[in-house]
Amino acid sequence: MYESRQLKTALKVSIFFLLVTAILHSLSFIGKPEAKNDQEKQLIELTSNYQMDLGGGIQRTYFEIFTALSSCLTLICLFGGFLLWYFLKNAIEIRLLKGILQIYLIVFGTMFIIMACFTFWPPIICSACIFASLIWSRLAAS
After folding, report:
1. Sign, CA torsion 109/113/116/120
2. pLDDT tens-digit profile of 110-120?
3. Structural contact between residues 100 and 87, judged by C-beta atoms closer than 8 angstroms
4. Is the alpha carbon torsion for 86, 87, 90, 96 positive or negative?
């Protein structure tokens, strides 16, 4: 195990935010979007039913493509959280952990920037918490 209590705590907080983000984001797959006006009704109708010809005999709706891409956020957060948990439980060499945390910072830092530019408050807050906790983890590993 790692001797630094701060490192263990920081890693646990990072794991927590990664897994909570995955769970919260997966809840978005449960409900169906509801239109509040005629424009939204038309938009939902088109994204749900209009199938684009993507070549090679593949036809998908925008909603299907969006769902596939959206599921990747849940999967990357699950992967990141479980991998950090595995590293914490097996106390990998600190030099290796520092390098892995650097990679996490690049990936999840980029994710935060993208969320901040193109989404709304819940994913922005979740990705900011992940990024901040990973910065703390990397600093505690020094």
Report:
1. negative
2. 999 999 999 99
3. yes
4. positive
Structure tokens at 18: 């990664």
**Nearest-angstrom CA–CA distance, 99 and 138:** 9
d(CA 4, CA 17): 20
Distances (CA, A) of 68 to 5, 15, 88, 137: 39, 24, 30, 31
Using 50, 70 and 90 to split pLDDT, how confident is the model at 28? confident
Mean pLDDT of 69-77: 95
Tokens describing residue 2: 């790692």
pTM of the model: 0.90
Q: How many CB atoms lie within 10 A of CB 127?
A: 24
User: 39-42 contacts: CB < 8 A, separation 24 or more?
Assistant: none
* Alpha-carbon gap, residue 66 to 25, rounded angstroms: 13
Instruction: Give the CA radius of gyration of the chain.
Output: 19
User: How far apart are alpha carbons 43 and 49 in whole angstroms?
Assistant: 10
Q: Strand pairing partners for 60?
A: 52
